[in-house]
Amino acid sequence: MKKKLSIMICLVFTFVMLTCSVSAVTFTPDFEVYSEAAYLVSLDTGDVVYSKNADEQLVPASLTKIMTAVILLEQFEDDISALSTTYVCGTSACFDELYLTGCSTADIQIGEMVSYKDLLYALMLRSACEAANIIAYNVAGSLEDFAEMMNDKAKELGCENTHFTNAHGLFVDNHYTTAHDMAIITQYAMTLPMFTEISCAESYTMEATAYHEERTIVHTNYMMSKTNGGDYYYEYVKGIKTGTLDEAGRCLVSLAYKDGYSYLLVTLGAPMYDDAGNTVYYNFIDHKNIYEWAFKNLAYTDIINGTEETAEVAVEYGDGQDYVIVVPAESFSMIWNTNISTSSIHEVITLSSDVVAPVSAGDVLGTLELQYGGETLAVIDLVSATDLARSESAETLAIMQSFIGSDQFYKAAMYSAIFFLVYTVLIIVLKIIVHRVNKKRVKVYATPKRTSSKKKW
User: Fold this and answer.
1) How far is CA 128 from the centre of its chain?
2) What are 204's strand-pairing partners?
3) N or C: which end of the chain has fewer CB within 10 A?
4) Tens-place pLDDT, residues 360-399
């Protein structure tokens, strides 16, 4: 039952992802974006407002751990509190591939019993690779089987350009994703209990174990911290996950909230060094610049008023009038660049033909397509604003008027004329015949009988 429920949730989420993003137009910032790929989506409307190489397959590095957290959290959806009371440990299989890689860890040891809750915090804040493998091994029984679970989930979510080979994101062939797919995965993760709480925490204290006393770990997204962030600090940003590899560059998924607006931003492949070879967090720079641009220039804007009269639609047999007014079925608003006038949005109106009364208010009689830059923003039904009853007399008159001048009318007239002509000719011929017959009869009756001149003796 739990598995079926999970599948249903995934299907619903996929449908929402496919249908909520009404806007097909994106806006371009007036500054350089250093990352190879970027994808900015409004969490309020689903509008994708900025996109750069969003479907290019790139190495995700530790952004992989978002999917790792998804798989684990789904196991505890029915009892999320059990994350705190379920303890597991890792065998050597969880650590062998990590030795001498220089990967980030939370210093969890072989055989150390750690709660799933602490493993999740270590995974998302400290980006602990051993935490990823411990989760994978205990959930699936092997690291390989867990990777298959990750791929199955990616397919369920509609991620067509993603393939995972491990749970931690260290470089290996055939391990890739896109900015777009990673946004889908993250938005789904945010629907799961505790994910946002964990991934957006600035710090967390892990409980004591047989190997460690209580210790505090901090998030690797330094943008959240005045202390660690320095010039990269941005007060409106939250979590979610960083990722860094030589093969991947600097990657980041984060959220930002300001003045009632909320955004999710995914960037992949930012440079790790400047031209002089200095270490630079270009992923943090990109996120701060893009968010500031969005909050300054983008606003939720009314594009179409649902009560605005749009057009007239001709109606046959209407009682008192031969048309109805149509209006949009609903109002339409979206995230829009305030530097661009909404008058630049092109409206394409398509109206129904051969509409016959009666018409009821709300009947769909056309569509209104909104276009900008050659892209469709939305298609809205146009509906009748009022009722229009049917007029029987108007119908009769219309039928008569339509008959006169029609092919059928001309055919009937022609046949009638031919019939009348034939009838007339026949009458004339008949009269002539009768007249001649009568004339002959008159002559016969008028001729006297001859009498014999011989006398009878």
Assistant:
1) 35
2) 217
3) C
4) 999 999 999 999 988 899 999 999 999 999 988 766 766 6
* Angstrom distance (rounded) from CA 16 to CA 46: 9
Q: List the structure tokens of 256.
A: 């930002």
Question: How many Cβ atoms sit within 10 Å of the Cβ of residue 340?
Answer: 15
Q: How many CB atoms lie within 10 A of CB 333?
A: 15
Coil vs helix vs strand at 170: coil
Buried (b) or exposed (e) across 34-67, using 16+ Cβ within 10 A?
Answer: bbbbbbbbbeebbbbbbbbbbeeebbbbbbbbbb
Cis, peptide link before residue 110, omega less than 30° from 0: no
**In the chain, what is the straight-line distance between the N-terminal and C-terminal CA atoms, in Å?**
145
CA–CA distance, 287 with 304 (Å, rounded to integer)? 32
Q: Are 117 and 83 in contact (CB under 8 A)?
A: yes
Give this prediction's pTM: 0.80
Q: Provide the token pair at 157.
A: 């979510």
C-alpha 271/C-alpha 22 separation (Å) is: 32
Taking residue 13's Cβ as centre, other Cβ atoms within 10 Å add up to 17
Contacts of 408 (CB under 8 A, 6+ apart): none
Amino acid found at 385:
A
Are the beta carbons of 167 and 54 closer than 8 angstroms? no
Q: What angle do CA 11, 15, 21 make, to 5 degrees?
A: 150
Distance CA 150, CA 186 (A): 13
DSSP state at residue 194: T
If you write DSSP's letter for every residue of 349-415 in order, what string do you get? Answer: EEE-SSEES-B-TT-EEEEEEEEETTEEEEEEEEEESS-B-B-HHHHHHHHHHHHTTSHHHHHHHHH
Tell me if 116 sits within 8 A of 134, measured CB to CB.
no
Return the structure tokens found at 417. 């004329």
Q: What stretch of H or E contains 101? A: none
Quick check: 40 and 297 in contact, CB under 8 A?
no
Per-residue pLDDT tens digits for 69-107 = 999 999 999 999 999 999 999 999 999 999 999 999 999
The C-alpha torsion from 180 through 185 and 188 to 189, rounded to 10°, is -140
